[in-house]
Each structure stands twice: as C-alpha cells, then as structure tokens.
Design goal:
The chain has 255 residues and is an alpha+beta fold. It is built from nine helices and eight strands. This is Glycerol operon regulatory protein.
Length: 255
C-alpha cells in the first residue's frame, strides 16, 4: 500500500500535469472535479505548491497557473539535454522489441560515424563499436544516408574508390544508383552480408527539416532474421525514427 505521503506526492505531480498548453489556468474546485479528488486536499496541495513557487494564484480570480519554479526546472532540463540522452531510451526499447542490435549512425563528411550501439543480452553478437566509421556506399545503415544526399555528392561517392568488403558488397555504380532510388521509394534500406559477413541490416533515414542527419538500424545474424522478421522490424524502426525526429524538433536538438 502507498503511504499517505506518497499518495500526496503523486497527487501533487498529477495536478502539475493538468496544466497544459491547451489549459493553462485552473480553479481549485474545477481541478478537483476534473481529477475526481477531494477539493480540500487539492487546495492544500495547491497551497503547498504555491509556497514553493510551482504554481501562482491570481489575487482577483483566485485561479492557479504554473509558477516560476517549473520554468527554472524546465530551463535546467533543456540546457542539459543532448541528442544521445534523448535517443537512447528509444533505441533500448527498439532493441527490446526486436531482440537484435540497434545502431544510431550519423553523417560525418564523406563517411559515417557510429554514435550509439545497443546490443541485446544473452545473444550472439557481432563486432561493432560506438565511434567506428564506415563508407557511405556499403550496407543499409550507410546507404540509407547516402540515398538522401544531394545528387552531386552521391556521384562523388560513386565515382570514388568502392572497396569490396565481402562477396555481397555492392560496388557497381549503376547497381548502387538503382538501390539508392529503391531506398528513396521504400523509405528504408535492407542489406545482406555486405559490410559484415552473415549479417542482415535494416535501416531508416533520420531527416530533420529536409536535411539528412543519420540513420537508425536494426541488425543481426542472417540465421536469426528471416523475411518475416524483416517485415516486422521495419515498422518498429520507422516508429522509433518518427519519435526521435519529433523530439529533436520539439527541443530544437542538433547533432
């Protein structure tokens, strides 16, 4: 059972969450009725919140709005927020949903940089580490980025040295152009054993205001990821990407 103090704390937090963009001002009785709480208890909590600066009361209307203490905490949160801290819980959720490794890769000049690697527990993994770099033309993680670069930059990459890392590495420029167009049409990329042997990867681009920033990837051993799983993982990838993009826009985060 919750203690009386914990119930009061939960009620206080619930009251603070009632103040939204759509509803910035509340009367005490109105708030109690909306939440189904005893109005005497609600007034006591509001008085405590007011004394500590979390709400303020209009002396004429007697209605409440959020106070300066909330703004101060929000400012501290915003100033200390960074992209990886925001993204990692979503990547961990995707790893838990798929049971496979999840990567966050960013564009860095003419190559890619692996920022985050989250791996499942108690499963066979393959060697990949945060901080590793890779060319843009090889594998789903990287081609999902390349596909959304300006045409002149794509051609610079395709006319450069294209190293064959495995038997499946795509090095023919025409084949790569066709694959890049397919990635743009589908909204995702899939690769089989291209950069690392016996690994299947699925990736989606991370695009903010029309600019490609990086990609999110689910990858695992070929024997563990069949076509059915690929079709199940791609929507999960897209949902995660959409959540990350929404948060980056909301908090004006950049890499």
């Amino acid at each position: 059972k919750e203690s009386t103090m914990l119930k009061t704390v939960n009620s206080a937090l619930a009251i603070l969450k009632m103040f939204t963009r759509e509803k910035t001002v509340w009367g005490g009785r109105e708030l109690a009725a909306e939440m189904g709480l005893n109005h005497t208890n609600v007034y006591r909590i509001l008085e405590t919140l007011e004394r500590n600066g979390f709400v303020s009361k209009d002396p004429i209307t007697k209605q409440y709005k959020l106070g300066s203490a909330v703004w101060e905490l929000g400012t501290i949160f915003y100033e200390n927020l960074n992209v990886q801290e925001m993204i990692n819980p979503h990547l961990q959720k995707l790893c838990d949903q798929t049971g496979e490794s999840v990567f966050f890769t960013v564009l860095d000049g003419n190559e890619t940089l692996m920022l985050t690697v989250i791996e499942p527990e108690n499963k066979v993994k393959f060697p990949v580490t945060a901080g590793s770099r890779a060319p843009l033309y090889v594998g789903a993680s990287y081609r999902s980025i390349l596909a959304h670069l300006p045409e002149n930059k794509i051609e610079d990459i395709l006319q450069g040295e294209l190293i064959k890392y495995t038997e499946n590495t795509m090095t023919n420029p025409d084949d790569l152009r066709r694959d890049l167009q397919q990635i743009r049409n589908n909204g995702y990329a899939i690769s089989h054993n291209e950069y690392t042997p016996d690994v299947v990867a699925m990736a989606v681009p991370l695009i903010i205001d029309g600019d490609i920033l990086g990609s999110l990837t689910v990858a695992g051993p070929s024997y563990r990821i069949n076509k059915t799983q690929q079709s199940e993982f791609i929507p999960l990838l897209q949902q995660t990407r959409d959540t990350v993009q929404w948060n980056m826009k909301k908090y004006n985060l950049t890499l």
